[in-house]
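User: My collaborator sent over this chain with a note saying "see what the structure looks like." That's all I know about it. Can you take a look?
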Amino acid sequence: MNRNRPLAARLSVFLTLLGTCALAQAQPPSRIAGAVDAGKRHVLARSTHPLAAPASDRGRIDGALPLQRMILVLSRSAEQNAELDQLIAAQQAAGQPGYHLGLAPEEFAARFGPSDSDLFEIKSWLAVSGLQIDKVARGRQWIEFSGSTAQVEKAFGTQMHRFAVGGREHVANASDLSIPDALAPVVAGVLSLNDFGKRPQLSRIAQVRRPTLTRRVNIRKLTNPGRARRS
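Assistant: Without extra context I'll predict from the sequence alone. Here is the result:
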């Protein structure tokens, strides 16, 4: 019988609790100052898709239409971005202590995510807006939510319209989104409020010859330097 097993088990629990406490103490400073007032707005610039133009507008959609898998993208502070750049550099520097050393999602959240207080304020605002919180990323870089069209319009100060583009009908916000001023330091934008999708802006055919083959092979190179479908 191994008499050290109880001691080893207790030590394991102690180390786990110690790690949890360390993460709790490593909370980043809160960036949301003051109450979240829905009447004081911050406009998210360039958050309207370029194809959602007045010429292709076919009118507002039904407010009861459900919208799902929307992503609220959270931002990092300037200090967090600087620290993250240093971490990435250390991970790529052979011979350094941080070389190829990764972080668990919870560790990443503790260092580069919003504070508990900020996350609570954001989730509370979504809930008060009538939106359902479906998932929070373990690394605290985004929140997935859903709700009706009317709830989304009210929360983000826009209207959802149908647009006819390329012979197909799409749904998108007709104007730039806005959020309460207090949330601006922590909220970067919203993804998946339109269904235009990504399309390659450059397509060309190139012929290459593989050394081990005697026939030519056509390879289609697709380049898509365009922006994401939502900002």
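A starting point for your reply to your collaborator: Residues 41 and 214 are 64 Å apart (CA to CA).
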